[in-house]
């Protein structure tokens, strides 16, 4: 069952998610529902906050591989590039965001086993974007003031044109 994607303005998106301590069937079910939701909205990554669950879990799909990271933390990062990013919680908005080009993430799998994963390029960007969500940080918080103003103006105009 696909879940509701929380949109910009929902306080859950600005809240820090809590560490996952229970690794059971409900966590597996949440991960599966998050994949369904992400795929339904043609996303490539999704964090717990975005579906109203303040749990430190993210899912991503990259090069046809499904990834689930529980309690992820970036343990190292290097390089930097600026590229446009969008977000399922802020539809229709793209802003330039500075990100590391390479990261190592320490996380747990759905059984609670600790692992590390190295990522470069788009996958590194996905991990940083979703871990930001788990910390209550949005792409609008990571861009310059003028880009944020422009994005907010575009969102407001879209909302006004709907009514």
Provide a descriptive summary of the structure in words.
This protein is of the alpha+beta class and 163 residues long. The protein contains 3 helices and 7 strands, in the order αβββββββαα. The protein has helices at 25-40, 121-134, 145-162, and strands at 45-47, 57-62, 65-78, 81-85, 95-99, 102-108, 114-120.
Supply the key terms:
single chain; alpha+beta; 163 residues; 29% helix; two-stranded antiparallel ribbon; globular; 5-stranded antiparallel sheet
Task: Give, in order, the helices and strands.
Answer: HEEEEEEEHH
| Low-pLDDT segments | none
Average residue-wise pLDDT: 95
Beta-strand percent range: 25-35%
- Helicity range of the residues? 25-40%
> By helix and strand content, what is the structural category?
alpha+beta
Q: Please tally the helical runs, counting DSSP H or I stretches of 4 or more residues.
A: 3
Which geometry do the CA atoms define?
Answer: globular
Largest sheet: 5 strands, antiparallel
Quaternary arrangement of the chains shown?
Answer: single chain
Strand segment tally: 7
Distance N terminus to C terminus? Answer: 29 Å
Radius of gyration: 16 Å
Strand order of the largest sheet: 1-2-3-6-7
Helix and strand topology:
Blueprint: H1 25-40, E1 45-47, E2 57-62, E3 65-78, E4 81-85, E5 95-99, E6 102-108, E7 114-120, H2 121-134, H3 145-162
Antiparallel strand pairs: 1-2, 2-3, 3-6, 4-5, 6-7
